Each structure stands twice: as C-alpha cells, then as structure tokens.
Amino acid sequence: MSVYRDESPATWLDHLKAALLYPLPHHAISRITHWAVRVETPWFKNLLIKTFIRVFKVDMSEALEEDPTAYPTFNAFFTRALKPEARPMPDDPDAILSPADGTISQMGPIEGDTIFQAKAHDFTTAELLGGDEALAEEFRDGWFATIYLSPRDYHRVHMPMSGTLRKMIHVPGRLFSVAPFTVRTVPKLFARNERVACIFDTEHGPMAVVLVGAINVGSIETVWAGEVTPPAGNHVTLTDGKHRPLHLPRAAELGRFNMGSTVVVLTANQLPASDTATAQPIRMAHHIGTFSNSHG
C-alpha cells in the first residue's frame, strides 16, 4: 500500500519559529490579508502579482490566462485556472489522484483511529473531523494522505475519485502556519487549525477531503457552498448534502484555498495498493494509490 512517513526530528530553529506564532492574532492577520488580496487598484494588485511570480518562480505558461495584469485581484491570480492539458489524468480508472499540487508530507495507514503527523506528533480521525466519533469510526484502520501546498502551487482542490457529497463540516480553530517546521513542532496541528471537511460516498466507501486553513488562509471555498470561512462564532457547523445531492467526478474541482495550505485525504478500510509514494513535489491528478479488491 502507499506509505510515506517523514520522521525528521524538529530542530531548535523549528521550535523557535513555531514559538513566535503562538501569540500572534492569527485571524486578525488573515482578515487583513483577505482584504489586501482583493484590492482591485491596478498598480497595487499588479505589483503584488508580479512580485509573487518573481519570488516564488510561478510558471504562468500553465495558466489559462498567462497575462499577470489581466487578473482583477491578487486573489484571482492566486486561484487561477490552468489549461485543460496541464494536469493529465492517469489511464488507470481505479487510481486515486492527488487532490492538489504540492508535496506529500505523510501517507499511509490510519492506525486504528490515529493519523501520523510527524515524529512524536499525531492526532485522531475524530479530532480532525470535528469530534464526530461515529463518522471517524468509518475510517478506522483506513488510509490517509497529507499534501502540503506551497505558495507557488496551483491552489484549486480536486476530487481524488468520484463521489457524492454526504456532508460538509466546518470546524473553527487557530490558523498556525502549516509549513514543515510547524508540522514538526505544533501538537495536533491539522486538528487545531480551522478546516472544512468534505465527506463523500464513493464506490470504494466513504472518503473525506479536509481543507486545512493556515495563517493568511482565512478563506476556504467549495464549489457548492462558495466561501465557507471566515464566519463568526466558535461552533462546528454541519451542512447536510442529502437535501441537495451533488455528485462530482474524479478530478472535478471541489474547492480552493484563498492563499495556501494543506489537504488531508481519508479513505475507509479498502486499502490503496501502490509503491509510487514520494516526498518529491507532485501535481494535481498525480497517481498516489490504486484501490485493490481487498477490504483490510
């Protein structure tokens, strides 16, 4: 089965950088960013876009709109569409696709109800899914993949396999950075940050695609609900998909990050079988596993 574990130990510099994040007003900073990246003033948004392209070496030849100045705001550029041929799908119809551009930071079995985050750090499926123990039980001894999106990556999130939306769970929380140094140092990071868990029913059982927010990522969107965050309040919000059934085919757009973050994919106990796991950068639609006929 697909397995990759990065057990690199945290360094003193990792701990120092993470310590500086704790006292910051994460949501206030993210609200300012939310405003700034939507400014339409041409000189301002063009300066932001061109500086970003230069610093992060963004490949605009893949973009549906290659002209940086054509985007009305920085956010429109950041969530830009790609040319249809930019992310070809594998021929295998049973292949599980990477939902996003990025890097696989961890991938492998869910050990009971425990998901590996980094050396000395893990969290449970229930914690990730907003405390829903019954839902978490569906993923017991299943499989997970954690994909980190860097600033230069394409920031739309797509379906790893075809599925019908069952429900969406918005879980409020902190907005720590999700860079590798915080993954190695902040306990239960992905179960502490604000996140949107999208639960689908598929031919291989339940699947969760969890969009995890981060500092400057105060806004997550889905194709069926629009902008989900940032709402007011501190309570888990559940949206039932049964009243408006939505089926999304494999590789269809699911949502997007307005600034970068992490996606965690969970599947049930039908275990993907593949040896293609890698810590190298991957692209959306990259083959990250193939379902076998076994059931755990």
TrEMBL record:
Q: Where is this site: Cleavage (non-hydrolytic)?
A: 260-261
Keywords, ordered alphabetically: Cell membrane, Decarboxylase, Lipid biosynthesis, Lipid metabolism, Lyase, Membrane, Phospholipid biosynthesis, Phospholipid metabolism, Pyruvate, Zymogen
Please give the residue positions where the record annotates the modification Pyruvic acid (Ser).
Answer: 261
Which Gene Ontology BP terms does the record give?
phosphatidylethanolamine biosynthetic process
Q: What is this protein called?
A: Phosphatidylserine decarboxylase proenzyme
Catalysed reactions listed for this entry: a 1,2-diacyl-sn-glycero-3-phospho-L-serine + H(+) = a 1,2-diacyl-sn-glycero-3-phosphoethanolamine + CO2
* HAMAP family for this protein: PS_decarb_PSD_B_type1 (MF_00662)
Q: Which residue positions are annotated as catalytic?
A: 101, 158, 261
In its record, the post-translational modification comment is: Is synthesized initially as an inactive proenzyme. Formation of the active enzyme involves a self-maturation process in which the active site pyruvoyl group is generated from an internal serine residue via an autocatalytic post-translational modification. Two non-identical subunits are generated from the proenzyme in this reaction, and the pyruvate is formed at the N-terminus of the alpha chain, which is derived from the carboxyl end of the proenzyme.
Please state the Enzyme Commission number of this protein: 4.1.1.65
Q: Which NCBIfam families match?
A: PS_decarb
Similarity annotation? Belongs to the phosphatidylserine decarboxylase family. PSD-B subfamily. Prokaryotic type I sub-subfamily.
In the bilayer, the protein is annotated as: Peripheral membrane protein
- Localization in the cell: Cell membrane
Q: According to its UniProt entry, what is the function of this protein?
A: Catalyzes the formation of phosphatidylethanolamine (PtdEtn) from phosphatidylserine (PtdSer).
Q: Which InterPro entries match?
A: PS_Dcarbxylase (IPR003817), PSD-B (IPR033177), PSD_type1_pro (IPR033178)
Q: In which pathway does it act?
A: Phospholipid metabolism; phosphatidylethanolamine biosynthesis; phosphatidylethanolamine from CDP-diacylglycerol: step 2/2; Lipid metabolism
Q: Does the keyword Nucleotidyltransferase apply?
A: no
Cofactor(s) the record lists = pyruvate
